[in-house]
Specification:
- By secondary structure, the chain is mostly helical.
- Helices cover about 65% and strands about 0% of the residues.
- The protein has a single domain, classed as Up-down Bundle (Cytochrome C Oxidase, Chain A), CATH 1.20.210.
- It has 18 helices and no strands.
- Helix 1 packs parallel to helix 3, helix 2 runs antiparallel to helix 3 and helix 9 runs antiparallel to helix 11.
- It is globular, with a radius of gyration of 23 Å.
- About 50% of the residues are buried.
Length: about 550
């Protein structure tokens, strides 16, 4: 295997490029662009909720803000950010030169910003107002063309996701180096195997629901319109058959990220490699049979409620396996409290909070009590922001040296973590009490008794917004002025650290060497210099082992 080490030009990131590393960074930067827009919309929503009266924006504009915020954060931020890490890392982790279908990979990326810009364009004609779920009959009366643009943009982004899933599955299953069997590949690859399977099985169902909804809007059909004999509950079933698995499509990649970050910065082997690997597949399977727990108040029959309650509680088992394995990995480790590790541990605690409330709302009586209240908002954000986004930041700080060849500024990274973690808990922890007291979500007008908790939540959201400042300064400064990273600054053992930083165009300047195990951190490597060649590194570790 030979590769050319050549510096990428900045123009390469604005072209139809088939290099998986360029596409990964394109995904990541574009996702962050939409993150900042979605975050700005969230700040407008929280500012409106400072007071009980709708006095900051009009009720119609408020509806547009929370609809677009939810849509952007899910479809244009977290899901594409997972694809960013998958695109960049999978070929490097399995010793391949590129993805299985490079041109298809590029097409998948370019569908994503086109769909995102199309969604934002709906502001010019009246953005959708029916929430990110777009339930009929509300979506059929809240503005036809705004809803239609929403549907088309989600179809484009969903197609991008499907094309990416085909590429990830084929690459992982068919392009590993010969000595890497399925039980020696990194856990991030296992996570993407489960994620891609979910995408392929669930996304077409959402596409079908949106096409039928579009027919109701434009052609006057009555698939979901109750005034013409349609059934809006059928839409809910089709929507949630995708959108509950979408929770795991968003979170599973970052389960894989955390499984890579913790062993490196704790200097310990991952605890329960196969248990973590197979629990990803179990979550993928169970995620397909729990969708109707979102519909306990939609007239679901009692016997069906019981099934979905039990299945939803059951999914806590493979998730718990991961959490216990991560904690066991940290136990007695030589923990380095750098930015990546801080976000990794923050991920565990915040996601655990979201998981515990998830078990609570899996119970039918409790779910009926808190349905469509701020308790649901709190649960969802602890899972998705506390889980997926903190995991994303852990991965960003961990692989930033590999992507750029420069080290991050650790003090700025710690400031970013502290502001994010404090802001996260100030924003979403009070929402649990708001929900238990009965405050409905998606409304700008609320009872004055809830104002003091909303003030705390809004101040927390401002801290979250300000946390992006040290992040952006750190990324720009470190990329342009940071200390040179070297090939393997973390002394990690997966294959991506055996190539240069940033990697060569075809990834490896020399044949990658598979270690005896991908997480064998039981060997003390403090004396191993980060600039040593792969052969010297192998010889050194082998000598210590003997």
């Amino acid at each position: 295997m030979t590769a050319i080490h050549q510096e990428r030009k900045w123009q390469d990131y604005f072209t139809f490029n088939t290099d998986h590393k360029v596409i990964g960074i394109q995904y990541l930067v574009t996702a962050f662009f939409f993150y900042f827009i979605g975050g700005a919309l969230a700040e407008i929503v929280r500012t409106e909720l400072l007071t009980p009266d709708p006095d900051f924006v009009s009720p119609e504009m408020y509806n547009q803000m929370f609809t677009m915020h939810g849509t952007i954060m899910i479809f244009l931020w977290v899901v594409p950010a997972g694809s960013a890490f998958a695109n960049y890392l999978i070929p490097l982790m399995i010793g391949a030169e590129d993805m299985a279908f490079p041109r298809l990979n590029a097409v998948a990326y370019w569908l994503f910003p086109i769909g995102g810009v199309l969604l934002l364009s709906s502001f010019f004609i009246g953005a959708p107002q029916s929430g990110w779920t777009s339930y009929p009959p509300l979506s059929l009366i809240s503005g036809k063309w705004g809803e239609e643009i929403w549907i088309l943009s989600i179809l484009l982004v969903g197609t991008s996701s499907l094309l990416g899933a085909v590429n990830f599955l084929t690459t992982i299953l068919k392009m590993r180096i010969p000595e890497m069997d399925i039980h020696s590949m990194p856990l991030f690859c296992w996570a993407m195997l489960a994620t891609s399977s979910l995408i392929l099985l669930s996304t077409p169902v959402l596409a079908g629901a949106l096409v039928l909804l579009s027919f109701d809007l434009l052609a006057g059909t009555n698939f979901f319109n109750p005034t013409g004999g349609g059934d809006p509950i059928v839409y809910q079933h089709m929507f949630w058959f995708y959108s509950h698995p979408a929770v795991y499509i968003m979170v599973l990649p970052f389960f894989g990220v955390i499984s890579e970050v913790l062993p490196v910065h704790a200097r310990k082997p991952i605890f329960g490699y196969r248990a973590i690997a197979y629990s990803s597949l179990a979550i993928s399977f169970l995620g397909l049979i729990v969708w109707a727990h979102h519909m306990f108040t939609s007239g679901t029959p009692g016997w069906l409620r019981m099934f979905f309650m039990a299945a939803t509680m059951l999914i806590a088992v493979p998730t718990g396996i991961k959490v216990f394995s991560w904690c066991a990995t940290l136990w007695n480790g030589k923990i380095s409290l750098n930015s990546a590790m801080l976000f990794g541990m923050g991920f565990i605690s915040a996601f655990l909070m979201g998981g515990l409330t998830g078990v609570m709302i899996a119970s039918v009586p409790f779910d009926i009590h808190v349905h469509d209240t701020y308790f649901i908002v709190a649960h969802m954000h602890y899972v998705l922001f506390g889980g997926a986004v903190l995991g994303l930041f852990a991965g960003l700080y961990h692989w930033f040296p590999k992507m750029t060849g420069k080290m991050v500024n650790e003090p700025l990274g710690v400031i970013h973590f502290l502001m994010t973690f404090i802001g996260l808990n100030m924003t979403f922890l009070p929402m649990h009490e708001l929900g238990l007291l009965g405050m409905n979500r998606r409304v700008a007008l609320y009872d004055p008794q809830f104002q003091h908790l909303n003030v705390v939540a809004t101040i927390g959201s401002y801290i979250l917004a300000l946390s992006t400042i040290p992040l952006v300064i750190n990324m720009v400064w470190s990329w342009t002025k940071g200390t040179k990273a070297g090939r393997n600054p973390w002394r990690a053992l997966t294959l991506e650290w055996q190539t240069s930083s940033p990697p060569a165009i075809e990834n490896f300047l020399e044949e990658p060497v598979l270690w005896s195990g991908p997480y064998d951190y039981g060997i003390d490597q403090e004396s191993v210099d980060e600039e040593e060649s792969v052969e010297d590194l192998l010889a050194s570790v082998s000598a210590e082992a003997r």
